[in-house]
Every structure is written in structure tokens, then in C-alpha cells.
Write a structure and sequence with these properties.
MetI-like fold; elongated; single chain
């Protein structure tokens, strides 16, 4: 089986970001706020050197240490958004897909209709508004923002799972599983979600993680630019977003202080989106192969 270039490239870039996140989790947090340099350098960015590979910021803090520790701002929330979004979408999609058109299941049909109403209500709210509402309501706490991201994507994930479950529910192997006395829960979890939908769910997990990187860095950037708004990660804690906000005025002069967080943000988001695209292509090829067989 040929592996798509987007899957390989996305997996490599995503692995690089996750390795940096693991490095940041294992490192001393004090390294990101410790000051270096001389009094003459105070208030200015110091160019990279052998001692400080990415230089020092205006406060004399090591840029590499801050870049690495910034991954703490989105790694945990990204994982939360990915897991919560996939679980909520899979649960809602399984309920609506399994119950649609199935005779003699009145309770299930009522539950499916209720789930459909809730999903429609969530889908009617713009994603950005829902995420900003979560950020403002909980003072920029990233766990709340992650839940907001997960909930905002639940209708989209559920719609794909609904189609998948409804299609597989008519397959002969599902009828055979029922004839052998397997419960609907086991059929859904094992035969449909795990054996035939896990690549689809992995696609959405990668997409949600990449989305969380974008959301966290954007909120931290806005929170730093607009000091009155309690959004994202605030100084002295590091985030790629607040690193960029503090260095934006150097883009046309020194350049490198702003390009460092920009490169980190672009590579991370691009990597996870490529991974999601590659997994989506792999899922489609798997379905086509099953149809042929």
C-alpha cells in the first residue's frame, strides 16, 4: 500500500512538535524565566550565540528555553480537545447513526432525535464565538478553551460518524454479529468504530490538536496586545503567541525575534493539518478497498 506524502510529512512534523513538548514537560520551568546577559543589553533582543542558540529576549530570557516551554501552553489542552472532541463526536454520531431508520427502538429513536437537536443547536453557533465565549467566561483558562474547541467541532465529527455507522449497520457482517448474540454496544465499539472508523477518528484528533495550537497562540497573542483582555497565556509564562506579540515590532528590523515563534506556529499547525489530511486519505482508501473486497 502506497503511503501518501502528506501523511509522512505530517507525521514527521507532528512528531517533532510532540518531541519538543516532551522536552518542555521534562525541563525545569525556571529556565524559561531566568534572566541572562549584561546591563548594556537590557531592553533589547540579543542575537543568537553559542551560549544562547536562539538569543535572548528584551528581559534577558533565553529564547530557546521559552520556545520549548511554550509547548506546555497547548500540549495538554490540545490533547484534551482531541480526546473530548473525538469521544463526543463518536458518541453522538453512533447514537444517531445506529438509531436512524431502525424499527422497534423507540427509546433509541427519541435519544437520537434529542442528540440531533443538541448538535444542530451547537452547529448554529459560530465556532469562533463559542471558543471566545469559553475563553472569556473562564478567564482564558486553556482547559476551558479546549472544551470549547471540542464542543464546537462535535457536530462535524458526529456527522461523519453518523454516515459511517448508518452505512455499516446494513452490512452482512453486522447482521452476522447480531445473530451470534453480540450486543449493539460491542458491535458499535469494536466492529464499527475501532475496526472500521479508527483512522477517521485519528484524523479528527490530529485536526483538533492542530486547531488547539492555533487557538492558544492566537488568544495569547491577543491577550498580550490587548492587556485589558484576560485571554491566553500571560507573561511571564511563555507562549508562542505572547513571544510573537512582544517581538512583532522587530519583524522589519532584526527579524529573527519574531520569525522564531512564527516558524514554530506555522510548522506545528501545518504538520498536524498535513497529518489529518494524510489520515483522511488513508481512511478513504481503506473504505474503497473494503467495497472492492
Amino acid at each position: 500500500m502506497t503511503v501518501s506524502p502528506s501523511l509522512v510529512a505530517g507525521a514527521c512534523l507532528s512528531a517533532l512538535v510532540l518531541a519538543m513538548a516532551a522536552w518542555g514537560a521534562a525541563s525545569d520551568p525556571a529556565a524559561a524565566t531566568a534572566t541572562h546577559g549584561s546591563d548594556e543589553d537590557a531592553g533589547a533582543y540579543v542575537a543568537p550565540s553559542a551560549e544562547h542558540l536562539l538569543g535572548l529576549d528584551r528581559n534577558g530570557r533565553d529564547m530557546l528555553a521559552r520556545l520549548v516551554h511554550s509547548t506546555r501552553a497547548f500540549a495538554g489542552p490540545g490533547l484534551l480537545a482531541a480526546v473530548a472532541g473525538v469521544l463526543l463526536g463518536a458518541a453522538a454520531g453512533s447514537l444517531t447513526g445506529w438509531s436512524s431508520g431502525a424499527p422497534g427502538r423507540r427509546l433509541s429513536a427519541i435519544a437520537a432525535r434529542a442528540a440531533g437537536v443538541v448538535l444542530s443547536a451547537i452547529d448554529a453557533v459560530p465556532r469562533l464565538a463559542l471558543i471566545l465565549l469559553a475563553a472569556l467566561a473562564f478567564g482564558g483558562r486553556m482547559w476551558a478553551v479546549a472544551i470549547g474547541v471540542a464542543v464546537s467541532f462535535t457536530p462535524t465529527v458526529a456527522a461523519e460518524i453518523t454516515s459511517r455507522v448508518a452505512a455499516f449497520r446494513q452490512e452482512e457482517f453486522i447482521d452476522a454479529a447480531r445473530a451470534h448474540g453480540l450486543s449493539a454496544t460491542r458491535i458499535l465499539l469494536l466492529h464499527i468504530l475501532w475496526l472500521n472508523s479508527r483512522t477517521l477518528l485519528m484524523k479528527w484528533a490530529a485536526y483538533l490538536f492542530g486547531t488547539m495550537v492555533l487557538v492558544e497562540t492566537s488568544l495569547s497573542y491577543l491577550g498580550t496586545i490587548e492587556g485589558s483582555m484576560n485571554l491566553g497565556v500571560a507573561e511571564p509564562l511563555p507562549s508562542w503567541g505572547n513571544m510573537l506579540a512582544r517581538a512583532k515590532d522587530t519583524l522589519l528590523t532584526q527579524g529573527w525575534p519574531a520569525l522564531i515563534p512564527i516558524a514554530a506556529i506555522v510548522v506545528s499547525i501545518f504538520g498536524f493539518l498535513l497529518l489529518a489530511e494524510g489520515l483522511g486519505s488513508l481512511d478513504v482508501r481503506g473504505l474503497r478497498r473494503r467495497v472492492r473486497d
